[in-house]
Design a protein that fits this description.
This protein has a two-stranded antiparallel sheet. It is built from five helices and two strands; from the N terminus they run H-H-E-H-H-E-H. 75% of the residues lie in helices and 4% in strands. The model has no long low-confidence stretch (mean pLDDT 92). It has one domain. It is mostly helical.
Length: 145
Amino acid sequence: MNLAYRLVGVGLWLLFLLIVPRRQWRALYPTLLFTALLAIVADLLGVVYGQWEYIGPTTGGLSLWSDLGFAPPQGGLAVYISKRYPRWTWLNWFFWIGANGLGEWLFVQWGLIRYHQWTTFKASLFYIPFFALIYLQERWWRLEG
């Protein structure tokens, strides 16, 4: 099942590269970096405080596939789609929140993540502030730039 990490990570980056026009990649670099950092910090807190553990490939207990392979292209896609289709902004952000909750549930079912004090419901709720911070970072960056 470690193949699932690789397939999802490569798939998300391919999706990002195919959907987002190349001329707009540079504008999304701050979002990609922020999302990766946010994912690493969230995972550090979750692992250190015994909320969950990764069974798949880890580095110091962290899943770098999740933090660098999943999170950045999702943050980049969420921001890009939000800008491209402003009428669908709320639906877009809720899609990413739901997709992450579902993805985490699947990874638990496949035995790649083990919950200790965490649940799929908590994970789904967690993705609300996670994606809200990405949204706020993007707005702040746009105002500063």
